[in-house]
Amino acid sequence: YCAGNDEAFRFLEGVLDEVCELFPSDVIHIGGDECPKVRWEKCEKCKARIKAEGLSGTKDLQAWIATHFARHLNKRGRRTAGWDEILNGDVPKSAIGMCWRMSSSAGAGDALVTPQIAAARGYDVIVALSPYCYLSRNQGLPDDPYPYYTYTNPLSLQKAYSFDPLSGLNEAEARHVIGSQACVWSESIWSVFDLEWKMWPRALALAEVMWTYPKDRDYAEFRARAAKQ
């Protein structure tokens, strides 16, 4: 979308208004991850928008857009959710950040907003860090027949079970963690059998992680139960 074109904003506002009419959810997700700035850097309309709004560049432009639509949804009584990149600006504190990155080089290279940084700024967060929560990652199994994303490090069952959504957060920050999420990206899924192979048993591990404090976990005991499943 052209960030300098008012008609693009009116169109997207209309889409969100219709979503609000169709779905009763208190939260509307606007995405916001992996946003390349290459087109905006070349677009005269986008350059004009940056100048008119007193922004420093295209990274500020994305933050300005996220803030615009978060405020639009707020007026309709909804909270905005988006991937952690939407928190790189002055988005309303009602916004929920879904933290997936562990380095600023991930995605489009935006400044990293960790769960700790987001919570310290007063945002609620959903912790879905890629190395632990992305079930599209290779499982590290021998003779695994299914294709995966080409991540460097596999996500084993034991690693999934080691995930701690509250890691590095103090008590006040931890209160801003409202959940976590296991993710399976369907562009790497070829059939229902492929889907089930990637989801299970790692989804069992993440489910237990999300319901259990680290001190109450025992991987050997969990693995025995997972084997029955």
Structure, described:
Strand 3 (96-99), helix 5 and strand 4 (124-127) form a beta-alpha-beta unit. 41% of the residues lie in helices and 9% in strands. The model has no long low-confidence stretch (mean pLDDT 95). Strands 1-2-3-4-5 form a 5-stranded parallel beta sheet. The chain has 229 residues and is α/β, with parallel strands linked by helices. It has 11 helices and 5 strands; from the N terminus they run αβαααββαβαααβααα.
Order of SSEs: HEHHHEEHEHHHEHHH
Low-confidence residue ranges: none
Strand order of the largest sheet: 1-2-3-4-5
User: What's the mean pLDDT score?
Assistant: 95
How much strand content do the residues show?
5-15%
First-last Cα distance: 46 Å
What general outline do the C-alpha atoms trace? globular
What is Rg? 20 Å
Provide a compact summary of the structure.
With 229 residues, this protein is of the alpha/beta class.
Note the topology.
Blueprint: H1 6-22, E1 27-29, H2 38-42, H3 44-52, H4 58-74, E2 79-83, E3 96-99, H5 115-120, E4 124-127, H6 130-133, H7 157-161, H8 171-174, E5 177-180, H9 192-199, H10 202-211, H11 219-228
Parallel strand pairs: 1-2, 2-3, 3-4, 4-5
